[in-house]
Amino acid sequence: MSNDILQKLTETIEVRKQAAPESSYVAKLFSKGDDAILKKVIEEAGEVLLAAKDGDKQHLTYEVADLWFHTMVLLAHKGLSADDVLQELARREGVSGIVEKASRK
Predict the structure, then answer these.
(1) How far apart, in Å, do the first and last CA atoms of the chain sit?
(2) Contact of 70 with 44, CB cutoff 8 Å
(3) Torsion 45-51-57-59 (CA) sign
(4) What string of DSSP letters covers 44-68?
(5) CA separation (Å) from 11 to 21, 24, 49, 73?
(6) In the chain, where does DSSP find H-type helix?
(7) What is the chain's pLDDT, residue by residue, as a tens digit (105 residues)?
(8) 82 CB-side CA count, 13 A
(9) Is 13 helix (H, G, I), strand (E, B) or coil?
(10) Does domain 2-103 bear CATH number 1.10.287.1080?
């Protein structure tokens, strides 16, 4: 189920890349470029932190959904997708976090 949702959302974001900025929130973000998209990701990350401190699970879920969405917009803006992230997570599966982090150096 989750992969289907991510795939559909990826497809929708890709379609919105071509849309007129006045017709779509995502198209408007794309038209504004890196700074606007990065600002939204940072804003949503902050809202996730505040929701987590609040202790309201429904609010936290809502804010994480916003963060994931805006992160997917960022990925699409950079020519990447949720599949790229899922492939990286699959690559890391079964690898110690300490070992994986050391391999980045």
Answers:
(1) 36
(2) yes
(3) negative
(4) HHHHHHHHHHHT-HHHHHHHHHHHH
(5) 17, 14, 28, 11
(6) 2-17, 25-32, 34-54, 57-77, 82-92, 97-103
(7) 567 999 999 999 999 999 999 999 999 999 999 999 999 999 999 999 999 999 999 999 999 999 999 999 999 999 999 999 999 999 888 877 676 677 766
(8) 19
(9) helix
(10) yes
The residue behind tokens 């038209």 is 31
| Residue count (the chain) | 105
- Where in the chain are the domains? 2-103
pTM of the model: 0.86
- Tokens representing 86 are 């899922």
